[in-house]
Design a protein that fits this description.
The protein is α/β, with parallel strands linked by helices. The protein has one domain: 3-Layer(aba) Sandwich (Rossmann fold), CATH 3.40.50. The chain has five helices and nine strands, in the order E-E-H-E-H-E-H-E-H-E-H-E-E-E. The strands form two sheets. A seven-stranded mixed β-sheet has the order 5-4-3-6-7-9-8, sandwiched between helices. It has a two-stranded antiparallel sheet with strand order 1-2. Helix 5 links the parallel strand 6 and strand 7.
């Protein structure tokens, strides 16, 4: 997750201006992700530098998984715009039962599958497709937690929030984590979602929503 780009670039996230890299860049066009908690704590994983992919910073991940400390174990997670897999893999490390990682870039999907094999994880699934196409028709039970860190400045959240709600991708009482550029207000969420937590770090705002209990 956490790739940044402008509207003129291909659908991968690039670092926003003045936001330093959170992964160690290696010669040969690869990046490095370090898992920060759980069973795989301190494990380092490689991923291709496809479209400027970078993990969500460790400090942000620590805050997010502190917010979700009592929800993550045994949960069924969806990681949209997965990129390096920083959030989906971190969730599995911390006890999530499953994580579906969606990314449209074949090289990144291959790296995600390779890293799941390296970690000997049976709970991860990688889907190589466009996120919007994936969300248009739900053919499985809803998720407990959705992570969503789309490319900036393309209006992704405004398009995907309604799809997530209309197709009932998230169970009542469950959680949606999103990141967006701090220069804009947080897009209006569906009426069944409540803003639970929100913070800004530099040019990035990250928010945790909860779907109201008893509302479908």
């Amino acid at each position: 997750m956490a790739r940044r780009k402008t509207a003129s670039q291909s659908p991968s996230k690039r670092n926003p201006p003045n936001r330093g890299p959170a992964s160690a860049r290696k010669d040969g066009g690869t990046g490095e992700l370090r898992i920060i908690g759980g069973d795989w704590r301190s494990r380092k994983l490689r991923f291709p530098d496809a479209g400027g992919v970078r993990p969500t910073p460790a400090r942000t991940r620590e805050t997010l998984f502190s917010w979700l400390a009592f929800q993550i174990v045994g949960s069924d997670c969806l990681d949209l715009f997965a990129g390096s897999g920083a959030l989906g893999l971190e969730a599995l490390s911390r006890g999530a039962a499953t994580a579906t990682l969606v990314d449209h870039t074949p090289a990144l999907a291959t790296a995600l599958r390779d890293n799941l094999r390296l970690l000997k994880s049976s709970g991860g699934e990688v889907v190589c497709t466009e996120v919007e196409s994936y969300l248009k028709q739900r053919n499985r039970p809803p998720f407990d937690i959705v992570f969503m860190d789309p490319p900036f400045r393309q209006g992704w959240l405004e398009r995907l929030f309604p799809l997530l709600a209309q197709q009932e991708w998230i169970r009542p009482g469950s959680w949606i984590y999103v990141e967006h550029e701090s220069e804009i207000p947080t897009p209006a969420a569906p009426g069944t979602w409540q803003l639970h937590r929100q913070k800004s770090a530099g040019q990035v705002t990250y928010s945790l929503f909860r779907v109201k209990d008893g509302v479908r």
